[in-house]
Design goal:
248 residues; alpha/beta; Rossmann fold; 7-stranded parallel sheet; binds nicotinamide-adenine-dinucleotide
């Protein structure tokens, strides 16, 4: 699989932590140039160092960018081109949640979640469409919440469902450009986001230990979807949840 990524450039948003970090690390290990995008400068720089310590040949650029800000996104894509000349793989992974009963959600809550989890992906896809060459790939990180959800996460569930829809649009309009767009619906994954989830702390959402995956188990599916081995996978929404969505 290494030959699929050597010399290619992969941009991963939310790459300083959890799933995004695992994706960035896997791409770096496989010889891709990696742009680690995050809004948190300290954790992004620590994450870059961590990967460089383990992978001596890693080619990593960190980009401090709030994915919900149009100018940040434009500048990040521009910097990527200046450093690596191409953008071949885009992974829209940055995301956040707000936990409140539906009647307590404010307009600000909705805007906060939608602007990062949905609009951020749109902004990067738009810039990518303008510069990506045929053979490029986009992978969006949605969630099982796109299809089944719990109480107190209405804005998040809606944003993740809309991200699946955006993936379909990107797949239809990307196909004539030679760009594939797919998304992954992770189940529970062992990251700070999972264990900070108040629904889990309160027991409102119960997760069996065997239903918790590792960030690396999402990263390997991202790598497959981003590789030419997935050349006929277009517009797919792939659940990577250890079978959680199949429970009765
Ligand atoms: N962990 C899970 O159980 C799980 C399950 C399903 C889906 N997901 C999705 O996977 C993705 C990654 O989640 P994670 O668990 O690794 O979370 P995490 O909280 O560990 O990491 C998220 C990263 O995104 C960054 N980020 C947040 N807002 C940003 C912004 N506006 N601009 C740039 N960066 C921003 C954060 O700084 C952080 O580094 C999210 O989209 C999440 O919704 C996670």
């Amino acid at each position: 699989m290494k030959e699929d990524f050597e010399g290619r450039t992969a941009l991963v948003t939310g790459a300083a932590s959890g799933i995004g970090f695992a994706i960035a690390k896997l791409f770096a290990a496989m010889g891709a140039n990696v742009v680690m995008v995050d809004r948190n400068e300290t954790t992004a720089s620590e994450a870059k160092t961590k990967i460089e310590q383990e992978i001596s040949h890693a080619q990593i650029l960190t980009a401090i960018c709030d994915v919900s800000r149009e100018n940040d996104v434009k500048r990040t894509v521009q910097t990527t081109l200046e450093r690596f000349q191409t953008l071949d793989i885009l992974v829209n992974n940055a995301g956040l949640m707000v936990f409140k009963p539906l009647e307590d959600h404010t307009l600000e809550d909705w805007n906060k979640v939608l602007s990062v989890d949905l609009l951020g992906a749109f902004l990067f896809i738009r810039e990518a469409f303008r510069i990506m060459k045929p053979g490029s790939a986009i992978v969006n990180i949605s969630s099982v919440h796109a299809v089944e959800t719990t109480p107190r996460v209405a804005a998040y569930a809606a944003a993740k469902a809309a991200l699946v829809s955006l993936t379909h649009s990107a797949s239809i309009e990307g196909k004539p450009k030679g760009i594939r767009a797919n998304c992954i619906l992770p189940g529970a994954v062992d990251t700070p986001m999972l264990w900070n989830n108040p629904n889990i702390k309160d027991g409102l959402e119960v997760i069996n230990k065997s239903d918790v995956g590792k960030p690396e188990e999402i990263a390997s599916v991202v790598a497959f979807l981003a590789s030419p081995r997935a050349s006929f996978v277009q517009g797919a929404a792939v659940s990577v949840d250890g079978g959680r969505l199949s429970h009765l």
